[in-house]
Every structure is written in C-alpha cells, then in structure tokens.
Amino acid sequence: MFQNYIKIALRTLVKNRVFAFINVFGLAIGLTVYLFGGIIADYEREHDIMFTNHERTYTIASNLSPKAGIGVKSLDNTYSAMGPLIGAGLEEIDAFARTIRRGYLVTSGDKHFHQQIRFADKELLDIFNFEYIHGDSSALTDPKGFVVTRTIAMKIFGSLDIVGETVFLNHDHDLRITAVIEDLPNNSHFNSSLISEPVEILVPLVALNRIDGWNLEGNWTNISSGNHVYIMTKQPMVLDDLNQKINTIYDNHVDPEMKDEFMSSIRAVPLKSTHSSFWDMVGMPVLESIQILGILVLIVAIVNYTNLATAQSLGRTREVGLRKTLGASRKQLIAQFLTESLTIAFVAMILALVFLELVIPSFNEATSKSVSLDYLGIVPWLFSTTFVVGLVAGAYPSFLITRTTPIEALTNLKTKTGKGNLFRSIMIGTQFLLAIFMLAVVLIVYFQNAKVRESSEIFPKDEVLVLKRTAVESIREREDTLRNELLQLSDVTHVTFTAQTPFEQSNNHRSVSLAKGDKDNEFSTNLNLVDHDFIKTFDVPLLAGRDFSREISADAMPATDAESANVIVNQLLVKNLGYSDVNEAVGTVFWSDRGEDESALEYRIVGVMEDQNLLGLHNKIKPWIFVNSPEPHRYGAVRIRQGASASVISEVEEVWKRVIPDYPIEHDFLDGLFNDIYAIYKIMNGVLAGFAALALLLALIGLFGLAAFMARSRTKEIGVRIVLGASVQQIIRLLLWQFSKPVMWAVLFALPMAYFAANLYLQFFAERISFQVPIIILSGIIAIALACLIIAVHAIKVATTNPVKALRYE
Amino acid sequence: MLKLHDLSRIYQTDDVETIALNSVNIEIEQGEFVAIMGPSGCGKSTLLNIIGMLDNPSEGKYLFLDEEISWYPETKLAQIRKHNIGFIFQSFNLIDELSVEENIELALLYHNVPASERKKRVAEVMDKVGIAHRAKHMPSQLSGGQQQRVAVARAIVGDQKMILADEPTGNLDSAHGQEVMEMLQTLNDEGTTIVMVTHSPAHADYAKRTINLFDGQVVTENVRAA
Predict the structure, then answer these.
(1) How many Å apart are CA A127 and CA A138, to the nearest integer?
(2) Would A145 disulfide with which of A178, A210, A438, A470, CB 3.0-4.6 Å?
(3) Interchain proximity B79–A327, CB inside 8 Å
(4) Is the confidence at residue A771, as pLDDT, over 60?
(5) Chain B residue with minimal CA distance to A329?
(6) Contact with chain B for residue A11, Cβ under 8 A
(7) Could you tell me which chain B residue has the CA closest to the CA of A406?
(8) How confident is the model at residue A60 (pLDDT cuts 50, 70, 90)?
(9) Distance to chain B for A765, nearest Cα, Å
C-alpha cells in the first residue's frame, strides 16, 4: 500500500514537472534557510567546547545600571578586581584567571611587530588545555614567560623550536619564550571576537605589573571589552546558584554608589556562551532574529506548497472518488496524500542539504568561521523537521481533497473552482504579509544605516590619516618633532595627537558639577585628551570662545596631577551646567572629581564646540570635555589636503621612519576606522536582505505557480466571457483582482507589524530616520507591483487566446 | 440480492427541490442482468448511485442481501461496497499515473490481500478480459475498448457479486461496444449480477430484464423471453 502511495507520489511529481519543481525547489530553499539559521545560531552559541573543562568554566559579565549611559545594557566582562575576590570568596572555586589586552611592539633581533598581547594570570593554563607544540602548562609561572601560537612563532622567528629565545616589549622589557601552542580554533572565543583581535600571545600578568605598574589585585576603574575574568568551579554549577554567590561577593565589596550608578550586578556566563554574549552586550537579539527569520522563510515555503498542492489537488478529485468507490477509507486517502507531501519534503530536504554543503564553505571563508554539517548530531533534527514540514504542508490539501464524495468526484457535477478559494487567498495573504514585513524591515535597516553613514560625514573621514599605537612615552617625547616634520609635507595641513579618534567606541568618564564637590548636581561626561590641534584637524566648528593656542601657556595642562586646566567643551555640556547661552559659559569654571583620588580638578571653559557625535554610529550625543593633556596620546591624526597626491601616504611613512625608527608605523584612514565598526551593521543588513529576498522570491514563485494554475482552470470561463464580448483589459483586470485582493490585505496587516519591528531596531540608535511609514508603504507597493507583474504574464496569455480554443478545452 | 422499497431521492438546493427518484420499487435477484433505460435526467444515474451505495436515499428502504442499509453511515457502506460491488463507468475512470496492472491491483489494495495473492489474481483477471499483453502499459497508450476492459477487470478482481455499469459502451465505437457487452454477458453467465444503465436498445437486449425510468419513476419493466 505504502509503495503504491510513493509510486503515485513520484509519478504525479513527474507528470506536473513545473509545479513539482516549484514545490520541491521552494521547499528546499525554505529548508536551507531554516537549517542554515539554526546551524549558525547553534554554532555561535556553542563555542569553546573543545576545552576539557568547559562545563565548569565561566566568564564574569556585568549588568549595567540604567544610569550608566554608555549605550549598552551589559558588558561581557567586569572589573579585574573581581577575580581575586571571587577566588577567595567562592567556596566552589577551583581556579580563576584574568586576561588584560594591551598592544606592544614586540622585537626579536632587528624585527619589530605591533602585537596584541594578553596578559594573564598563570592559572589560565590550568583552566584551558591548550595544545602545546613546545613547553607545557607551567609556561606562565615564569614571570618573564612568553607564550605564542604557531602562527606568531612562524611570523616572528620563522620556526617553532624557539623556547628560550628572548623578545623585547617596547624595546625595554625582556621576556623569553616558554611555550609554543597550536593556533586556537575558530570556534573559540579567543579567536572569534567581532571586536577584539585573536589571542596569539600570552604573558603573565606579573610582567604587566613590572612593565606598567598594573596592580595585581586588579582595579575598579577600567573595563574594556575583550578582557575577561575566568572562573573554574570544582563541578559544573546551577547558574542561578552561582550567580547568587558571586553577587553576594560583589555586593560585599562594591562601592554602593558605583553599583547604583554603573554596574548594578554581575553574572556568570558559561564558557560556551561567552562568544555570543557580545550580542547580549550590544542588546541586539541577532541570533534569535536569524532563527526567527529562518522560520518565517520556511513558513512562506510551506504555504507555497500547501497553496499549489491545494490548487493541484482539484485536478485529482477523480482519482480520490475512484479510490473511495473501490473502498478506500478517508483515513487511507489522507495517509496517501500525506505520504506525498512527506515524499516531497524528503526530496526537498536532500536538496537543502546539497545547498547547505555548497553554501557553508563560502560562508566559512567569508566569515572565518568553521561551521560544519555534523550529520550524526543533526539527524534527529533533520528527520523531525522533514516530518513536521511534510505533515504541516500536506495537512490542508489532504483534508480538502478527501472531503469530496465519490459522485461529485466522478461526475464533476459540482463546481470545482470554488473550493479552497478563501483558504488560498488567506495563504497568499500570509506569504505576502511575511514578505512585505521582511522587505520593510530590510529597507528601514538600510536607510537607518545610510543615516549612520551620512551623520559620520561631519568628519572629513578620507582626509584624515590616523597613526595608531602612539601611546608610548618615548613616542610622546617625539610628538613635536614628528608634527613639525609632517607639516613640512605640502599635502599635510594639520597634525594632532589625541587619546581618542572619532568613531572609537570608548568611554572615558568624569563626573562634573558647576560647584565644587556638589554631589547632588553632578553629571557624567566623556573626556578626551588632546593637543592644540584637534579642533582644526577634525574641522569641529566652535560656537563661542576660542581654540587652544600655543601662545597661551595655560592652555597646555602642565601635568596629569595639575589643579586646573583650560578646556574646550561641547554645547550639551554647557547646557547641562545650566547656561542658556554658550557665550555666557566662556571663561567660567566647573569642577570634576578624579576617580579614586579625592582631590577636585578645576576646568576653565575657553571654547564651546558644536555638538558633534564623536562616538558616531548608534550612540547618543554626550557631553564632552577636551583637555590639552601631556599624557601619551594613543593616536596621531594627519589632515591631508583635499586632492592630495597619492604619494602622500608614503611621504608620511618616510617621515615617521626618520623620526621614530624604533617603532613601525601603523595607519588607517579615519574612514577605515569607521568602516571597521560599520561593517557589523552592513553585514546585518546584508543577512536581513538575503532573508527578505528569499521570502519575497518564494512568495512570487508561489504566486506564479498558482496564477498559472488558476488561469488554466478558468480557461473555459474566460472563453465564455470573451465570446460574450469581454475585452482583453477586462479579462486581465478580472485575473489581477483575484490575486491582488489578498496581497492588499497583506499590506494592511504588514504595515503595523513592520512599524513595530522597525521601532525596536531604531530604538538602538540615537539619531533615527523619521520616515518609517513611507518606507513601509513603499515596500508594500513594491510587493504589489511585483505580484501584479507575475499575474499579468498569465492573464495576458489567457486573455489573448482564441476563445474557440478555450471553449474546446476540457 | 437487493430490494428497493418506496425509495425516493430528493436534491435540495437553496430554493429548488428536485425529485430525482420518486417512490421507486425494484427487486433484483442474484445472477440477474438488468438494464436501466430512460431519457436524460430521468434518474438513471441517481438510481445506480444509490444501488452502488455512493449515495443515500432520502426516503424509503434499501435491502441489500436482506440487510436494511439505507441509514448506514458512509464507512459501513464502504465496507459492504468493496466486498460486493464493482463499478464500470462510461469514461473508464482509470488512474493515468498507474499502469494497467496497477490500476487493477488498486481494487485489491483496499481489501488487505497479501501481495503475492494480489499478483496472482490480477494476472487471472487480465487473462480473462484479454489485456494481459498490455499489463505494463499506461492507460493513455490504450484504445477506449482496451481501457474499458481494464475497468471491467478492476470491477471483478475482488470477486464482486454485482457489477454496476453506467453506460459502459457510451464512449466506444460499435465494435468495441459489442466486445464489452459480450464480456459482461460471459460474466453474467458465470453468476455475476449485472445492473447496467444504457441508452442503446441493442445493448439493453443483452439484459434479461429492462427497467424504464421516466421522471424518477419506473414506468415499465420488460422481461426478455428466454
């Protein structure tokens, strides 16, 4: 019996090749997207499981207070001071380790390399069982130890057998290689971060203490993404339980004010989720969205199948009637039609796996991930998906068609086109609802991204060459020489040194108030340490007062512990201080605390600049203070004349080489820095667009098939209409109307849905586009236009057929 | 074999009531060959559908093998039907996607007959109706007469006691029509009850008895002289 079902199923497929192709292909696309979404989400959520202790290893993340105001709701790490505190206070602890990321110049012989170094507690090697090529897990007990990956060993030494070799950090600090480890896998958080570079060099934290005076107890001031506090418990723990215990420790040590103002609590993140906690940090449910979109596309594909199968099944009523006459029960017939849809689902699933095998390698290459199809692991999932898809897709057609009585079926007495019309309309409506919804969301994301890009244009992005990694005392000493030499170049107009460039996602906070020590009227502001030329170099307009000047000695803060400083602030800060007119504020003073130090610092306003979004991207405009500071600046910025010759970069490089021969230059245009972060938005938009395009494509394919079918089944009716004098236009209108109605309904429902989803996304941004509604309507119009086009193709064909032919048909 | 007593069938639509059969009384014995004749719309097909248990009467009684079945639900009728009644249609109603032997086998699929037994019986009936040489062909590759022979084979493969034929020769030329009628004659001779609707007086002559219907009523019954 079952064989017979399959046989009929396959032969029906072959007989209706076009529809079968649409069905199988559509379902396969839906399944591919769904499976891909699921596999990616799983991959992202299951990192680091290659480490033996992963089940009892956690990283500590933190939840921010709503008052924190740095644009994110949580951070993927916490204060480094929490490491030793949890290590001492948690009964179940086995080991803890912290990592601190710093950039250094690594020198071996006469070769120099700028490298990111992870300074780590030596216990890191107890927690993670890295693969050692040379050396072992005691490699960080040596206070001068230096652990490198295979890639770095080959890059610096051209050899792996290098244990005992000496390297220098920033020329002054000698360390020696104690171990060489294999490169870390792609699906480890060490290597997969979207925001920090991969871990390639490990050095004990005690070395950082020696080189930079880093306090080994950790601190309560500095948090930077990409650093971590790891804890390993004796046994895997219930997360709530662990969280409760570490928060008790946190509460016992944290300054209550800081808890209220900044970090309200901490939480343990299982190691395998550490990688994906980046998305928790930025507050975008990206992985969930990918999965939901995958499911939506699959639904569109299923609806496609159901719709076409329903339409087609009308042509098979005779078969059903006959089978009933021969004694088939309804149950048996339903079983038969479900077998058919299951067969199709099965074929589609195989095709989907082929698609995946084709897509995944290029995806891996583009994203440097190592996603793979682990068949053994996903077989149950594949089978249940096939089964559910087959049953859901086939349910309605089999219900509908087996309802016919044999007499109806065999004599064709009853009208047959009426059946399932409403259902089909609802299905088409559903498909377009989803397609329009996705299209609208994509367009909104696209335009919002364009807005982000557009607002970034306030800075002369491609005329500023940023020199990186200048935060070294010995470079600081040569800043003036470098500036003067660079200004000799004809294409260079300004040179500035700054702690922070535009678009860099970093927040250096100060609490300030108008009156000294006025805790009640304090507010938080961002601080940038610059030199005399920042405003000029970045084209920031001044609204009142003046720029820093070399003529006025008070403009340059003499030392970091000075009592007062001349500052340039932005308009928002002036407003927060309570001045209504920017001119009023010039010459006045306000006060700041200095973090842990109790002494207050007096700021005198010399200039007020326009509110510009220095952090750019999704951030709100914040109050800013610019101090002309003697501290080492992390960046140099070279303003290049518009239309400068292409050789200007090599000229800058030459000057650098002459002035600072001991550190290699690293530079990028400001545009490049912007794009590094903007790329995340672009990728997201691309992914969304892919989903939406597929959904729309599926909906259109489905409509195409259905329109073809309905046009065919209405040939006779249309023939009669033409004989009675209907014009071609009238016939086309008739057919268009039949399908346009559900699409219009879809638009009506999609609009509020898209509006809601769009607002969720836009909330993430400080500067939002204001024209969501026209965009949503536009996407509706696009969908309707495409739908009409598809239907019109058939309608014209049918309407221009000779009616005699149409009437002879059937 | 069966007995219809004061049987009526009324089609009810929104505002029109059509009486297709009006107090019909018919009795058919085991082994009879009965032809039903009458003009279009007189209720022939309705009568055949009710006898074939594809439709329920609105009023009256239907005794099949001494069992009153007029009120039976569809599932129960399907059980009786599949073991006792075979159908032959004017338009053959073969399934295009199945070969000749698969079409015949279809009738047995719903009888829980094991595969080996099915094969044997399908082969037997194909021999009987002379279509064995076309076993693997698809319906579209056959002539009308051949298709109707397949339909006959399908109607009898389950050892049905009665065959209901709705204008079995209506779509055939006279030679092929003759062929099919002779086949039915043979089946009747072997003991199968046959009830046939036909427009052709010549083909009605094969029957031992002819029932004439007009406006849903039996007007005459002629018994052919033996």
Answers:
(1) 12
(2) A178
(3) yes
(4) yes
(5) B75
(6) yes
(7) B54
(8) very high
(9) 60
- CA nearest A786: which of A739, A729, A734, A718? A739
pLDDT in tens, A295-317: 988 988 898 888 888 777 777 77
Q: Per-residue DSSP letters for A501-549?
A: -TT-----EEEEESSTT-GGG-EEEEEEEE-TTHHHHTTPPEEEE----
pLDDT digits (tens, 9 = 90+) for A170-212: 888 999 999 999 999 888 988 877 767 788 999 999 999 999 8
Chain B: give the shortest CA distance to residue A308, in Å: 19
* Closest in B54, B105, B111 to A325, CB measured: B54
Determine the 3-state secondary structure of B49 from DSSP: helix
Which has the higher per-residue pLDDT, A600 or A352? A352
Integer-rounded Cα Rg, in Å, for chain A is 33
User: What is A138-175 written as a DSSP string?
Assistant: TTTTSTTEEEEEHHHHHHHTS-S--TT-EEEETTTEEE
- Cα dihedral A703, A705, A708, A712, rounded to 10, equals -120
pLDDT band per the 50, 70, 90 thresholds, residue A289: confident
Please provide the DSSP assignment of A302-350 as one string.
HHHHHHHHHHHHGGGHHHHHHHHHTT--HHHHHHHHHHHHHHHHHHHHH
Q: Which amino acid would we find at residue A581? A: D
A324 at interface of B, judged by CB pairs closer than 8 A: yes
**B111, A327: Cβ pair inside 8 Å?**
yes
Q: Please report which confidence band the pLDDT of residue A809 belongs to, taking 50, 70 and 90 as the band edges.
A: very low
Q: Is A326 on the interface with B (CB under 8 A)?
A: yes
Instruction: Say if residue A37's pLDDT is above 80.
Output: yes
CB atoms within 10 A of CB B11: 11
Residue B171 at interface with chain A, using a CB cutoff of 8 Å: no
Do the Cβ atoms of A327 and B45 come within 8 Å? no
Residue A417 pLDDT > 60 = no
Q: Is B56 on the interface with A (CB under 8 A)?
A: no
Does the beta-carbon distance from A326 to B107 stay under 8 Å?
yes
Q: Is A410 on the interface with B (CB under 8 A)?
A: yes
Q: Please report residues of B whose CB lies closer than 8 A to that of A11.
A: 97-98
Q: Do A4 and B78 touch (CB under 8 A)?
A: no
What is the DSSP pairing of strand A263-270 with strand B33-37?
unpaired
Whether A327 sits inside 8 A of B106 (CB atoms) is: no
Percent of chain A past pLDDT 90, that is, above it, reads 32
CB-CB under 8 Å, A411 with B110? no
Q: What is the count of residue pairs from A and B with beta carbons less than 8 Å apart?
A: 57
pLDDT of residue A619: 77
Q: Compute the nearest-CA separation of A418 from chain B (Å).
A: 16
Cβ pair A557, A629 in contact under 8 A: yes
Who among B82, B93, B98 is closest to A327 (CB)? B82
For residue B186, give the H/E element and its range: helix B174-189
> DSSP states of A407-436 as a string?
HHHHH--S--SSTTHHHHHHHHHHHHHHHH
Label residue A248 exposed, middle or buried (CB < 10 Å: 0-12, 13-18, 19+). Answer: exposed
Per-residue model confidence (pLDDT) at position A165: 92
| DSSP secondary structure of A217-271 | T--SS---BTBEEEEEESS---HHHHHHHHHHHHHHHS-HHHHHHTEEEEEEEEH
- Kindly state the tokens that stand for A372: 């793979």
